[in-house]
Design a protein that fits this description.
There is one protein chain. The chain contains 11 helices and 12 strands. By secondary structure, the protein is an alpha/beta fold. It folds into 2 domains: 155 residues, Periplasmic binding protein-like II (D-Maltodextrin-Binding Protein, domain 2), CATH 3.40.190.10; 117 residues, Periplasmic binding protein-like II (D-Maltodextrin-Binding Protein, domain 2, 3-Layer(aba) Sandwich), CATH 3.40.190. The strands form 3 sheets. A 5-stranded mixed beta sheet has the order 2-1-3-12-4. The two termini are 17 Å apart.
């Protein structure tokens, strides 16, 4: 978390980029976790900049990285950091990935509202997602098989879950792999036996119930105070220092107005994270 907070301070410095006039279309590609921020920000941004056309395509962080590398997007949405292998591929093609952190998130387990299970430990989540626990009765629920719903391997959300929850063990072979946060949410809302995981912005669906982890609920507050165990940064990546249309869009997302949009979709704004870090330092 300390490393992420330090990155946030660096990201705020991007606000100093010079404003440049707009021209042409701007395709933005990548993470479905970052998508709710980008959709609202782009809508507000284009309303203020009538000559700008921005399209959003969300299919996973891995796809965002690929699009930045192959030049089909100047701005990739990612819910994980780029891998060393991706950075090498980019540099081999003359692309210099520039990381910009725009918000924080916590990955939240979700179940159907009829499921009596309210809390799971990290070990229980690992055992469910690796197939060692297959019946709800073994984690305090009603007897019945657990339907495991997961993101697919191109997703930054999957990779973060795989690293921090599964500890890089193989996901359960019978898991239902979904291409987006929205697809996970929809699948779980329709299956009483299902469990999934989504970014915080997707937990507001009335057809879902968020499950606490180690007795701590996924929330802005618990992400800031460091008590929620599955928190992460949300990123944009550009080819080198942002310029032109890309710079102006990034500056908008990092502005006070843009960060209010981050909060409005239930993610954690950078300045809130900065304030939390300062408060912790003051209390020491």
């Amino acid at each position: 978390m300390k490393r992420l907070l330090s990155a946030a301070l660096a990201a705020l410095a991007v606000l100093g980029l010079a404003a440049v006039s707009f021209a042409g279309d701007l395709p933005v590609k990548g993470s479905t976790t970052v998508q709710p921020i980008m959709q609202k920000a782009v809508e507000a941004f284009m309303a203020k900049n009538k000559g700008v056309s921005i399209s959003i395509s969300a299919s996973g962080s891995g796809d965002g990285a690929k699009a930045l590398i192959d030049g089909s997007t100047p701005l990739a949405m990612m819910s994980r950091e780029m891998k060393e292998s991706e950075i090498k591929q980019a540099k081999d093609k003359g692309v210099n990935p520039k990381q910009i952190i725009i918000a924080y998130d916590c990955l939240t387990p979700i179940v159907h509202p009829s499921n009596p299970v309210k809390n799971l430990t990290m070990d229980q989540l690992k055992d469910i997602y690796t197939g060692k626990i297959t019946d709800w009765k073994d984690v305090g629920g009603a007897a019945g098989p657990i339907s495991v719903v997961s993101r697919d391997s191109s997703s930054g959300t999957f990779e973060y879950w795989n690293e921090h929850v599964l500890k890089k063990e193989r996901v359960y072979a019978r898991a239902q792999m979904q291409a987006s946060n929205g697809a996970v949410a929809q699948t779980v809302s329709k299956q009483k036996s299902a469990i999934g995981y989504v970014g915080l912005a997707y937990t507001q669906n009335k057809g879902l119930k968020a499950v606490t982890v180690e007795g701590v609920g996924g929330s802005v507050e618990n992400t800031l105070n460091g008590t929620y165990p599955i928190s992460r940064g949300l990123y944009l990546y550009s080819n080198g220092e942002p310029t032109g249309d890309v710079a102006k869009l990034v500056n908008y997302i990092l502005s006070d107005e843009g960060q209010k949009i981050v909060a409005s979709v239930d993610y954690v704004p950078l300045k809130a994270a900065k304030a939390a870090k300062a408060d912790k330092k003051a209390k020491k």
